[in-house]
Design goal:
The complex is a heterodimer of chains A (about 60) and B (about 400). Chain A contains two helices and four strands, in the order E-H-E-E-H-E. Chain A is of the alpha+beta class and about 60 residues long. Chain A has a single domain, classed as Alpha-Beta Plaits (2-Layer Sandwich), CATH 3.30.70.20. By secondary structure, chain B is of the alpha/beta class. Chain B has a six-stranded mixed β-sheet with strand order 1-7-6-10-8-9. A four-stranded parallel β-sheet of chain B has the order 4-3-2-5, sandwiched between helices. Classes of the chains: A alpha+beta (about 60), B alpha/beta (about 400).
Chain lengths: ~60, ~400
């Protein structure tokens, strides 16, 4: 199973991931992503990972 | 009369036969000659035998996480590597590791050297924060001829800096901060465990599995060190068999009737007194800190003070911890000032599990268990604006 993960030491809360994956990621009150437990659309998730400006978003297999 | 730990840091006492603390009733510090007189020589065990022994006695790490030591040993690559003794003891109310390093350093060195010999590690590093402990270990190294591969590294304090991977980065010359990715230390040839763990290894080698198992429970044999403090007449570092009921320890410590007991330090939990609670790692013993709060103190204020300290300990690397823990601390201070608890639970939920290390999770566990236990107190603070008691500092907060 594939899911999204965050390197919290890198994430600056840009919020691009929440815009690219609106059903999967919402932002907390400080702008940091809150993730859905599983990934619906692997292709979209890969794109969000590739576009994360802080290289903080990643895909993890479990 | 009650005393806080800060005033009586180094007293020791035991329930049952002492193992780690043996001899400390007679010696302030056990030098090498006294060490050998009290304990005899250390038997050698090769890697398979040491692994089997520590598996047999189910030795778990004593820094708080309780990871099985034999599993770490098995994961180490052969013939090289470093053994690290983590003596950073960053839990504010904990004094057990410093006590061992200051007063029984040879026992800790024995354990670390035995592990290094078994796996063929070239280096042993003892990482300490406390200056007196560093001195005692250096003096002990000078007293024996088998310590050429041992180095003492004095590390900066800080709650998060004592976390295993953070400590390792600090020792390698980097910032003492948890890395963003989960790495297994043993893959890099590093075997790291807490001071007390190595002392138990030295004890297990001398006793053998059968006698080691004469103390403690079936699942968790042997003894453990506790640091007992707060509203007790006999605070100090205490050695007890694993599984000893909390009530026995508190009565031996002459504890005041508790309003609350904090078990497991500032990543642990607030509990109502359960005298039958067996003190073992399966029950959240953590690094063994037990703090008693009696009715003379404003428990809500104590909780708020520690929440503020926990927020200040954030390494400020991870957003939810950096922003969320101060928000949570403000909420808890608000509850003490008479506000509703909902905001605190909201922020606790927002922080939980969202960091590179377990600091946010531990802080949330501490705060939410406190708010739940102190429900009546929170109502009292809300309706009367306070409880009329002052904060006695029964939970030690470093200044």
């Amino acid at each position: 199973m594939i899911r999204l993960g965050i390197d919290w030491t890198r994430c600056d809360g840009h919020g691009l991931c929440a815009e690219l994956l609106p059903g999967q990621i919402i932002r907390d009150e400080w702008g940091f992503p809150m993730l859905a437990p599983t990934v619906d659309d692997t292709h979209a998730a890969r794109r969000a990972v590739a576009l994360c400006p802080a290289l903080a978003l990643r895909l993890e297999s479990r | 009369m009650t005393a806080t730990l800060a005033s009586v840091p180094a007293g020791t006492w035991t329930i049952g036969t002492p193992r780690l603390l043996a001899g400390l009733d007679r010696y302030a510090t056990i030098d090498h000659a006294a060490h050998l007189a009290v304990r005899g020589p250390l038997p050698y065990a090769d890697r398979p035998r040491l692994t089997a022994l520590l598996e047999d006695v189910a030795l778990s790490g004593r820094g708080g996480a309780g990871f099985p030591f034999a599993a770490k040993l098995r994961a180490m690559p052969r013939g090289h590597g470093t053994v690290i003794v983590n003596g950073s003891e960053s839990e504010p109310a904990s004094f057990k590791d410093r006590t061992l390093l200051r007063r029984a350093p040879h026992l800790v060195l024995d354990g670390a050297l035995a592990v290094a010999a078994a796996i063929g590690a070239r280096h042993v590093k003892v990482a300490v924060h406390d200056t007196a402990a560093a001195l005692a270990v250096r003096r002990a190294i000078g007293e024996r001829s088998d310590c050429r591969r041992v180095r003492v590294a004095q590390v900066s304090g800080g709650f998060v800096g004592g976390e295993a991977r953070a400590l390792l980065r600090g020792l390698s010359g980097g910032p003492a901060l948890p890395p963003g990715r989960r790495v297994h230390l043993t893959q890099n040839g590093t075997l790291l465990s807490n001071v007390e763990t190595y002392a138990h290894i030295a004890v297990a080698l001398r006793l053998g599995p059968h006698r080691f198992r004469e103390s403690g429970t079936h699942a968790e044999p042997g003894t453990t060190l506790l640091t007992v403090g707060g509203a007790v007449e006999r605070p100090g570092v205490v050695e007890v068999p694993l599984g000893t009921p909390l009530g026995i320890v508190l009565s031996a410590a002459s504890a005041a009737p508790p309003q609350a007991v904090v078990v497991g330090g500032y990543h642990g939990t607030w509990q109502a007194l359960q005298p039958d609670l067996q003190l073992c790692h399966a029950n959240g013993l953590g690094a063994g800190v037990i703090s008693v709060l009696d009715d003379s103190t404003c428990a809500m204020g104590e909780l708020a003070r520690v929440a503020g300290w926990l927020a200040a300990q954030s390494a400020r690397q991870c957003g939810p911890c950096r922003f969320g823990l101060p928000a949570l601390a403000r909420d808890v201070a608000g509850v003490a000032a008479g506000h509703d608890v909902a905001a605190a639970f909201h922020h606790a939920h927002a922080v939980d599990g969202r960091g590179a290390c377990h600091h946010p999770d531990g802080a949330v566990r501490f705060v939410t268990s406190g708010l739940r236990l102190l429900r009546e107190e929170t109502v009292r603070h809300r309706t009367a604006g306070g409880c009329g008691r002052s904060i006695r500092g029964q939970l030690v907060v470093p200044t």
